Amino acid sequence: MKKSLIFIDNDNHKNSIDLLEVVRQIYVDDGCETYGICINHDSLMANNVFDKLIQVIDPDIFQNDPMIVTDIMEEVHKKYDFDAILIPATNFGRMLAPRLSMRLHVGLVADVTAIGYKDDVLEMVRPAFSGKIMAGIVQQGIGPTMMSIRQNVFSYEEKMSKTTEVIRYHPLKKRKSGLKLLDMNPKVQSYDIRNSEVLISGGGGTVKNFQKLEMLADVLCGQISASRMIIDKGIAPRNIQVGQSGKTVTPKLYIALGINGAIQHIEGLKNVEYIISVNINKNAPICFLSDLVVEGDAFEFIDKLSMKIKNEQIVTNKLKKVEPRR
Amino acid sequence: MKIVCMVKIVPDVDKFEYDFESNTVVRDNVRMILNPDDASGVGFALKVKSMKPDTIVEVVTMAPESVEPLLLDLARVGVDRVTYISDPIFSGSDSYATSKILAKYLETTSYDCILTGTHAIDGDTSHVPAQLGELLDLCQMSNVIKIDEDALDESKVVFTVDNDTSVSTYEMKLPGILSIQKESNYKLPYIKYEDINKDVNDQINIISNDDLAFEKGKVGLEGSLTKVNRTFVKEYKKRNKVVVGNDEQGIETVYSFLKDKGFV
Amino acid sequence: MNKDQIVQSLIDLLSKDQVNTNHEALYDASADRYKKYAKARKVLKVPMPLAIVYPNDTQEISELLKFCNKNLINVIPRGGKTATEGGLENWKDITIVIDALHLDKIIKIDPYNSQATVQAGVALQDLEDELRKIGCTTGHSPQSKPVAKYGGLLATRSIGQFSTLYGGIEDMVVGLECVFPDGHISRIKNVSRRSGGPDIRHIAIGNEGSLCYITEATIKIFKFYPENNKFYGYLIKDVETGIKVLREVMVNGFRPSVARTYSEQDAAQHFYHFHDNKCVLLFMAEGPKGIVEATGQAIEEAVEKFKDGIIKQVDSQLISDWFDNLNWSQKDIDDEYEGMIENDSHAGYTTEISADWETIPKIYNNVIKKVKSEFPRAHDLTMLGGHSSHSYLNGTNMYFVYNYKINCAPEDEMLIYHHAIQKIIVEETLRMGGSMCHHHGIGKFRNEWSKQEHGSAFYMLEKLKEVFDPKGIMNYGTIFPQEDAIKKYIYKG
Known about the structure:
Chain A contains seven helices and 16 strands. By secondary structure, chain A is an alpha/beta fold. Chain B is of the alpha/beta class.
């Protein structure tokens, strides 16, 4: 029976466990005995989804040091001889995986977003050139299949509950870490519009009540940005100005409310995935760059769409009766 | 103090254009540039050098000969020595083989701190820094956004890391490897106008396989543990401007669009 | 006299309120829009003037110039601050800027005789607004209209967007008043035309502050017919086709107020929403109804004649909308300034040239080719193109525009990028027999080529300078090349 090991990263249990879907795709009908490994943390989520859960609890072990964790993973692999070792591509995972693969002299594919078989050989697909080209990689040589896997791509659907055997493991090698943690602060919400995935942007057509954009930003979990006209009128600070003389932004979704679309503004929208424009003039220049154009008043649109989203949310929650996972 | 900066010369990926008709990415005439994260590393090293002038900064890269002009420019902004490792036998190396080659050179030179970038805009596997750490038995940390230049000496370094969920400050015993992100905002200085054509050949150090003596089969395509089977392009659709009104139907269309793309 | 003594003398001559020695203001006054990037990044390497003074009338200006002439103080005349070629840049340690701020009166508007008289510090927009109230217009509309003032508009031989119908400033000036370095005040009276020796107005018009200080001007005013405006827009195959159509309309005897053709990249800046990566040709016909209709017809016929080069017609409403948003405002300038502080890139440098019909397309093609192949930083260009916007019976202009990413220290930007591109454009134009300076003036950044531009006729300009400004106090370095200063302030030697 094949054996696979998944590293459970304390920073993201869910994505780590989702890697079980990758295991399923690799071994399909053959099946595989699944192992998870937690180092100096516990994972309630891992219960009942893995066949075995290896737990390493030792205050002398500094789990933030990839070197130390590599030692442990190497020992564990020598003991169980896995066919596949999967690591989520969290920041830590991306340091651990290459070190471990070099330790084991095994080829590693990083940041995998899809897998499949080509001529019976497992091919791992990953983005290259900042995502502009996809590459299909195959491993050469012997050794376990090793990959780090991009977060939020695979999703594990629990088919049935399992009884997980918990294995307490005590590493033999215990080297001293050259790393010391001095301070740790959880991340504060960034207010730089360049970091936002969703931007609700207002232009000249929203001067009368620019604050109203907050309503839409709330329901879509986005940030507010503006065209120069709003900044010129002193309605909003310059740090949310989008455009040539302001910031270049790369959100997945850009909703342009009452924005005409002067070239200087458009220059700030180089790599936006989806643009929705709301304008009383459906021939305003920005509309020609948009996926969706709503011909009408921006404020009316905000009211109507926010209401629609809230209503749908209520309906969905009623159907599911589930607490959203965090 | 000696700082070694590992750098990679990569294509200017932003200039790749997507051809909707043939579903390909056009890479012609795209310039090669210094990988932005790596440039931050060199920027930081030069900042330290400007504060402590007896710091020695060496830049190391593995690259074909064609990128020499870019490396000369690094010598012109203050890097003491630019080492470039080039040999046809290395061609086709994956990150595993590349790490072995770089590590072999590094074993012959001194260093207190090795700086690298975290992400390379072309391959972006981030393998090499960690693998160098493994081969040289050094600690390595990625996603560095700040290094405390005042607390830096030959024995230790204090730095800040941008993790997925938190921002952490560590102290690392040196020698060690730090992988910087361009978001750290350490900038490579510009070449001064008067230095644009400065002769810096005596600062360039070329290393071939004559110096490293790898057996054929241990490097290059044959020595790699992964192989690129094929490349293909994600399909992009040209924008279809769909116009709707501010009425129930229009709002419904917008909502469906948002739902479909995962925004609600 | 030392600097403090000079400032004190200025205060004595005028009054304390009229002398400005504020550091920020002086830094800002050291250079104009040619070095806007270096200024925004605070790395200007030119001397700051000692003071900016605001005289109240012509008499005070006469006293000021006499004082400066006596004490060898460099004088920079200043109006709306929209200069783009270094005309306002300071190349001397002892300099004062004489700003026309208080010369802001519209003295007389005379619709019967179609004339209006203004002081040099009157903003073009202000006069235009007044004229519109009586159904008239200045007919002069440079992009700097909301900010530019009459002194500078005359001194630079400026031209506006509707020049193809109304002419350049030189066609609009009736009479004027100016002051010379020796304090002499010359008033040229307002007459419809005369033959009284050479036309001495042209010593002042275009002098760029190198010969005299213009204090007042009388300009023609035109009846305004906004209700009849007709717009035409077309997507065309190339710039040559556009030039041919423009020529056809002009040579056949018609005067659209706007006649323009844009190359693809330049068109993208204005018409990205419909230009589909093609060149753009556009016209506006203005005036009394019959004339507009005839002009419109002539345009349509010209387009038809060259229809092989025409791809399609564009909705006139789009052209009209574009037109309404064309001019700068002070806010545009301020915003651009903020943007340059934050971003390492630049937008909006230009070099405008002119030539006859046959030569213009050749110059255009050669320049584009040369910049792409000979400019060492061509890979940093984010936009390179040009448009023709002022046509004449015998030729037209070409307005080259270029934007680029700046990958060098801010103090090196001008030499590595801006001036390097300008040089290619100027030298190619002069080589082909065109003029390197269609309407922005020579300033300081084209004076390396002043002699080439004028050839044997430069003699006439030189003699004027010798006679009117023998001590060389008027705007040192403008028009008349100064080798040492060029080496120091342009080539960093």
